[in-house]
Description:
By secondary structure, the protein is α/β, with parallel strands linked by helices. It has one domain (13-41, 51-192): P-loop containing nucleotide triphosphate hydrolases (Rossmann fold, 3-Layer(aba) Sandwich). It has helices spanning 28-37, 82-85, 100-117, 140-149, 165-184; strands spanning 13-21, 52-59, 62-69, 90-96, 122-128, 153-156, 191-195, 198-202. The longest helix has 20 residues, at 165-184. It starts with 12 loop residues before the first strand and ends in a 13-residue tail after the last strand. The structure holds guanosine-5'-diphosphate (GDP) and magnesium ion. Residues 28-29, 45, 70, 73 line the site of magnesium ion.
Amino acid sequence: MASPAGATARPNVYSFKVVLLGEGAVGKTSVVLSYVEGKFNEKHTTTLQASFLTKKLSLGGRRVSLAIWDTAGQERFHALGPIYYRDSNGACLVYDVTDEDSFQKVKNWVKELRKMLGSEICLVICGNKVDLAKERVVDLSTALAYADSVGAKHFETSAKTGVGIEEVFLFLSQQMVRVKDSKEGAVGTGSLRRRQNVVVVEQPEPEPAKRACCG
Ligand code: GDP
Ligand code: MG
């Protein structure tokens, strides 16, 4: 969107799309419902009928509106395509700390998102079901090291107890605002300047693994 010459005003309202990704039964739907509605259901929460739920929050006087997209269970049939995550500002990649395979699936999603959407998408990784501490098989230090290597922030969450849930979406919102501001020409993380209506974004050579967005 064009802005008047020299204007650096930041928008006051930010609308972001966030997608939930991860293997079936890791707790994606539970995480969204815990965050948006403060509810938890022991039974498998079948599909949300709506494609997304919205949540509004305020960040230092700026209003953020999140459209949080949950899958309709297509991941169970390996049928989640780019149409689901395109135009996303952020993604929450969920695994179950009691299921090693679900952690490996997160790695596949990270690869796919980076390939399709590049470094502009903010990523958080949630190790969910930390209330099941005795059954845990995915080591925290391994998960942290992995997240760090791909420029994502790792959170331990439990949709059941609510641990970590607010923090995930707060962090993601802050990152998405930062990315958006840096694109709009406000002070951001990257070096950015204006030249005769042309915005020049100076970025270091992209590293294949680590990205600047959410580190
Ligand atoms: P999805 O397929 O990834 O959307 O997973 P669901 O949200 O449907 O959750 C699958 C199952 O895991 C359900 O029985 C949930 O009650 C359970 N579940 C989800 N999150 C947690 C959690 O943090 N702790 C525990 N103990 N169970 C959870
Ligand atoms: Mg679900």
